[in-house]
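[Structure tokenization] protein backbone as discrete codes
[Encoding] learned vocabulary of local backbone shapes
[Protein] chain in single-letter code, fold in tokens
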Amino acid sequence: MFEITFLRALGRASSAGRHASVALLAVAALAVPASASAGGGGPVYAYVPNQNSNTVSVIDTGARSVVATVAVGAAPTGAAVSPDGSRIYVTNAAGNSVSVLDGGTNTVIATLAIAGTPYGVAVNPAGTRAYVAATNGQTLSVIDVATNAVIATVPVGNAPSGVAVSPDGSKVIVVNSGAGNLSVVDAATNTVTATIFVEVGGLYDAVISNDGTKAYVSAYGAGHVDVVSLTTNAVIATISVGVQPFSLALSPDGTKLYVPNQIAVMNAPGLTIVSTATNTVAARVVTSPSSTGVSVTPDGTAAYVTNPVAGTVSVVDTASQTVVATIPVGANPQALGQFIKPSAAGPPAPPAAVPSLGLWPLLILALLMAGLGVSAIRRRAVAG
């Protein structure tokens, strides 16, 4: 009843009444819960382990410069970042430990003992588990991220190196370099459910496709990447990339595979870019005489490639497929794993609600404005 009476009053109102209706609409807008952006996430960081310096270089990928150097354990080799960027896990191969870094303060907040030369490391998509391959121990250690405690140790194959987690977090792939195979670990039970033979001659790293159906495995001894079906547990393609391909990284959309070659030669000068649609080489980029680690920024615009001999990181623009910056870091940067940090502050905060005036003040104000409109009509009628 109030709404009908109010609308009729507005319909008869003169210019004074119309001005009142405009003011009313402005007030009504305040009564509806609105949202205001609290700002997006912070800058994107890359965490590069320097094996001979026993440090991690923290690179602001926007400024393309080192903003912090963090002391860790002996011979840091692998690095992995939690999905929200709050934690970074660094394997110290000679220190038999894992350093846990706080992503907000760039400080070591915990050091976990991992026997048997910890090497590769990965964090699951939920950010609840970190997985560490111990090369000499022939095990996969499972770390509870909430407590920073090792909650399981899974026997795998000979000389495990790289680790990858499926997009749904249900399985973990461990690359057994010395055995030439992959251990498939069930993340729910922490048991090996399959062993997939790839090839002899030395494997190093693996990444899993965005749909979870394939694993890409670097075979540094043979100079190519093997494509493994995780449905049939068999090699379905082989891609020649260069001499001693090491770490691997996929573009965020999964269409490109980035493969650094430890030994750069004329036909494979540093970084090889593979089309995952055709399993063919799409481009080659000159980075350094020796490149080993690679990780891609979350927006897919840049690939960061570690160069151990030069002690630098090459920034490759993925659109032009050229090196656009070279960043000095520590001695012998390696970076086995996905070492790019998504955001300094984690995910963007939810929108903040604008306070409402409440319903009763609005109703009272609406009645007053309607009265003003009617009064204006009466005054004009008397004046006429």
User: Anything to note?
Assistant: The longest strand covers residues 256-263. DSSP finds three helices and 31 strands in the chain.
